[in-house]
Design goal:
The protein has 625 residues and is an alpha+beta fold. Helices cover 29% and strands 24% of the residues. The chain is built from 17 helices and 33 strands. The protein starts with 17 loop residues before the first strand and ends in a 31-residue tail after the last strand. The N terminus and C terminus are likely disordered.
């Protein structure tokens, strides 16, 4: 094995290629599905390990791109690696004959890719002798998400100036560390402390901490948006600027509701809140490409076009529409209310059922529905509240009645959730907007109590496994879907996957279900504030076993933190949504009725507001619990 002072190294034998993970300092195996070859137009490439007595080991590429338009190459997975601490990639290359043409490429996690021919960095091109190639990362202009990379590649293409068939040898691939870290795309570990907390968390009141975390999270939805169309980033870098320009409609849905909170709390001018919301709704009515009232999962923030390859997503459309429903209630008797009504009534739930009983999870341009359906109790239940009460394309209530409600038991706790994985977002997403506290269905099932039991089980399972994971041993808990050391993970407890990664959204987004556990956890997070506090508050996640701390925020994780804290403090979002006629109709059609004594109230029959762009009057008092 040869390990070079920079970063990327390969070990032998050939079936055990490895890439150094710089966040943990450990090796990640690249064999199997984490590296591979591709070919276009009939071209071919075969990679092997070459051993030379005096030259060490190198990668040998036998390629054939003899016909016009052909190219072929080999890619190596990065697994969400952050390349911002580096300024260039450097490697050694030689050809069998000289005159070969090769490209080196990078691709980020949103599949923005650039492959650069190396001839411009070699005077005279590839020769029979070893030469050093250095390519500045800034030259890969099409790549955007440098903090979360998918792969790098070595490829060959048909060119009138190069050999169409030959062998190329590459070795000593390394990344060169930035000499000047004071730049626009990377902040060192020490510079993370540039985001100070305005008071000593140890001496702060609970109300101060709640306000700080909630208001900080709002910054994501306000600042990481395109004001021209209201699209909000899927994710962003936590410790500086980034080049991400991909928006998710789920982020927009959470963001629309978050703007209502910010307006009510006076964090932003009322006029700015209204105009941003109106701009957003106009985009989705007039400009966004959609099918039967359902939207693509991801859009380009600048152009508003769907991201290449993305699907029409039913759950993400549902999250968007819950935000639309919230602003309809918050801005009554306005253009916002008018457009919101159009968007809500445009969603064709019958179409998304694809002739079956349950809603499909996705539809792909060309006419193919996903075979996966929303037929279990999980985050997808919010779709049935929207669909059942639709005045235009209603779902039959039998779809809701048929949802599988499999029960699981953990010690003395019993709860219902799909497959028992118990990722906490499955409970949070619907109840960010729907106050199910005290409501039961035909079988006297209390969904709020169910989520309370599930949250407690998640916590108790983490504590029971404290001997296995450092974070649990220190008292941290909360397993859900989030970023992890090796990419996006879907963790859950007690019966889901677990790699020791803890996400603040898991605990803080559960604050209505387990107030004391969540508040205690919030205070504990500040013990590590120098590693997990960025420009919008607590970062997405961390894993102490691998000494890994996330460097990003995700809109779908920031949303539950902000909105569930607000629900805990004032019930604002619950109250707004409960006053919507569609939701009231849904409760009635779905057979929900008052059961156990609630701990939070739902206000109905909201009074009309005369001012054209005045927000809905909320009966709870902002700033109190």
């Amino acid at each position: 094995m040869f390990i070079l002072a920079g970063v990327i190294s390969f070990s032998l034998p050939a079936d055990d290629y490895r890439l150094i993970d710089f966040n943990s300092g450990k090796f990640v195996n690249l064999s199997g599905n984490l590296d591979g070859a591709w070919r276009n137009g009939g071209g071919s490439v075969r990679m092997s390990v070459n051993r030379e007595p005096d030259q060490g080991c190198s990668l040998r590429f036998d390629y054939n791109v003899s016909s016009g338009g052909q190219d072929a190459g080999h890619w190596f997975a990065f697994r969400h690696f952050d390349l911002r601490p580096y300024e260039s990639v450097r490697f050694k290359v030689r050809g069998l004959n000289g005159g070969e043409v090769m490209a080196f490429g990078f691709k980020d996690d949103r599949w923005y890719e650039e492959r650069i021919s190396i001839e411009k960095y070699l005077e005279g091109g590839i020769s029979k002798e070893w030469q050093v190639v250095t390519i500045p990362l800034k030259d890969f202009a099409k790549v955007r998400q440098w903090d979360s990379m998918d792969n790098f590649s070595i490829s060959f293409f048909n060119s009138k100036d190069g050999l169409p068939r030959s062998q190329v040898y590459v070795k000593d691939i390394e990344l060169v560390v930035l000499q000047n870290k004071k730049n626009t795309w990377y902040l060192s570990k020490e510079e993370r402390e540039m985001f100070p907390i305005p008071f000593d968390p140890n001496e702060a009141t609970e109300e101060q901490l709640l306000d700080l975390v909630e208001r900080s999270a709002f910054g994501f939805f306000w600042n990481e948006a395109n004001p021209a169309n209201g699209l909000i980033k899927d994710r962003c870098y936590a410790f500086g600027s980034d080049q991400r320009r991909v928006a998710s409609i789920a982020s927009v849905g959470f963001g629309l509701s978050a703007i209502c909170v910010a307006d009510k709390r006076g964090w932003i001018p009322h006029e700015s809140a209204y105009e941003r919301v109106l701009t957003t709704l106009k985009f989705f009515r007039n400009s966004a490409q959609k099918y039967n009232g359902f939207y693509f999962h991801y859009y380009e923030m600048d152009t508003g076009a769907p991201v290449y390859g993305t699907e029409i997503s039913s759950i993400d459309t549902g999250l968007l529409l819950m935000g639309v429903l919230t602003v309809r209630q918050y801005f009554p008797n306005t253009e916002v209310e008018t457009i919101a009504k159009e968007l809500l009534e445009e969603a064709n739930w019958t179409w998304m059922s694809n002739g079956g009983r349950y809603l499909s999870m996705a539809w792909y341009p060309g006419g193919r529905f996903s075979p996966a359906e929303w037929k279990d109790y999980n985050e997808g239940i919010l779709l049935y509240f929207l669909g059942t009460a639709s005045p235009t394309y209603p779902l039959p209530v039998t779809a809701w009645d048929g949802i599988s409600r499999e029960s699981f038991k953990y010690k003395e706790r019993q709860f219902t959730v799909a497959a028992g994985e118990n990722c906490l977002f499955e409970h949070q997403y619907p109840q960010v907007w729907l106050d199910l506290n005290g409501w039961v269905d035909k079988k006297k099932f209390d969904y709020f109590i169910n989520s309370t039991e599930a949250t407690q089980a998640n916590y108790e399972s983490c504590m029971e496994n404290a001997s296995k994971y450092k974070a649990f041993a220190e008292g941290f808990w909360g397993l859900t879907a989030c970023d992890g050391p090796s990419g996006y993970v879907v963790n859950g407890a007690p019966y889901g996957a677990c790699d020791g990664t803890v996400a603040p959204t898991a605990s803080l987004g559960s604050i209505p279900f387990a107030p004391k556990l969540a508040m205690d956890q919030m205070k504990k997070y500040f013990e590590h504030k120098n590693r997990i506090w960025g420009k919008y508050g607590l970062v997405d996640s961390f894993n102490m076993d691998k000494d890994w701390f996330a460097s990003a925020y995700l809109g779908i994780d920031e949303g539950p933190i902000l909105l569930m804290i607000e629900n805990y403090r004032t019930g604002m979002i619950w109250e707004l949504v409960a006053g919507d006629p569609m939701i009231q109709a849904a409760y009635k059609k779905m057979g929900l009725e008052r059961g156990s004594i609630p701990t939070a109230s739902i206000a109905t029959n909201q009074p009309p507001v005369s001012a054209a762009a005045s927000p809905r009057e909320i009966t709870t008092t902002i700033g109190t619990k």
